Amino acid sequence: MIKVAELSKSFGAVKAVDEVSISVNKQDIFGLVGPDGAGKTTLMRMVCGLAVPDNGEVRLLGETLGKLEQARENLGYMPQRFSLYGDLTVMENINFFGSMYGLNRKTIAIRADEILALTGLNMFKERLADNLSGGMKQKLALTCSLVTRPALLVLDEPTYGVDPESRKEFWKTLYRLNREGLTILVSTPYMDEAELCTVVAFMDRGRVTAVDSPSNLKRSFRHPVLEVRVNTRDPEMFSGLAETLDYSFYGDKYRVVVDDIEVGRQAIERRLAEKNAPAASIREIPPSMEEVFISLAETEGDN
Ligand SMILES: Nc1ncnc2c1ncn2[C@@H]1O[C@H](COP(=O)(O)OP(=O)(O)O)[C@@H](O)[C@H]1O
Ligand SMILES: [Mg+2]
After folding, report:
1. Buried/exposed 172-185: b ≥16 CB within 10 Å, e otherwise
2. Which ligand is nearest to the CA of 15?
């Protein structure tokens, strides 16, 4: 559906997108995952033909960039800051977007009913967009970008700043749409959302550092992760411990990334003894997407 080959774009000295190659297949929910400034928006804008690459090529639905106009009729784009009209109702917003694409009222109404049923907004057609919750606004923006019935949907951080419950809801809708045949390219800074994609491309400083399914990415993580449960809450518990690579603190437990499991375990036990904090348990657990990403970002930085 999308083939991006060695795509680059700089803004002055900043390489926003640096020789990126990815391919998105029909059945994918393809996630571009990375922190602010990684280059996600710039890449998506080039995919949508809204920014011109310095180098490289975008192919959409088998077409080259030159023929993007035709291919684009099959593409829906929800930009990072999607602007709804607050003083228009839900249905008026949908009508507005639909008529921008030359659809007649009747077609828009039929499609809106279908999509609103899917997104659970059908009860709120007459509500002003300004009076919707953050999660409902995102769903309305999604509805607007679907009214052209695209085969391919590009979503730039659609759940940014939305509460966790609404984020879950939003992803359920994406799954439903994907099951019905929609190809989705979505960006997110949230690692828990990376888990929900069928394929993830990690982006960092303009580069794609890894592309694979979440389970394969985790399987390829070379370092053991130990979960340490302890009654002492100390964010600095494992600071400066040479035998550990990284650790994070979650209230009553710590996740510690180590090089060697036995060496790491001993170092952890030694530190706990020094801190007078006997461990309730230490066990190996699977890595999180966050740990995989951090390790890839660090490797890349060393080059
Ligand atoms: N129009 C622009 N002019 C100058 N710099 C830009 C512009 N758009 C993006 N950048 C820079 O390019 C880099 C990547 O930005 P962006 O693609 O927005 O990343 P992301 O969406 O992952 O946060 C950042 O360093 C950003 O400051
Ligand atoms: Mg962005």
Report:
1. ebbeebbeeebbbb
2. 1
- Closest Cα partner for 193 from 82, 75, 29? 29
pLDDT one-digit tens code per residue, 120-166: 899 999 999 999 998 999 999 999 999 999 999 999 999 988 888 99
175 lines ligand 1 (CB under 6 A): no
Report the CATH number of the 2-218 domain: 3.40.50.300
pTM: 0.89
User: Does residue 119 line the site of ligand 1, with CB under 6 A?
Assistant: no
Q: CATH topology of 2-218 equal to that of 222-286? A: no
Contact 28, 8 (CB under 8 A): no
Read off the pLDDT of residues 12-26 as tens digits, 9 standing for 90 and up.
999 999 999 999 999
Domain boundaries, the chain: 2-218, 222-286
What CATH number belongs to 222-286?
3.30.70.100
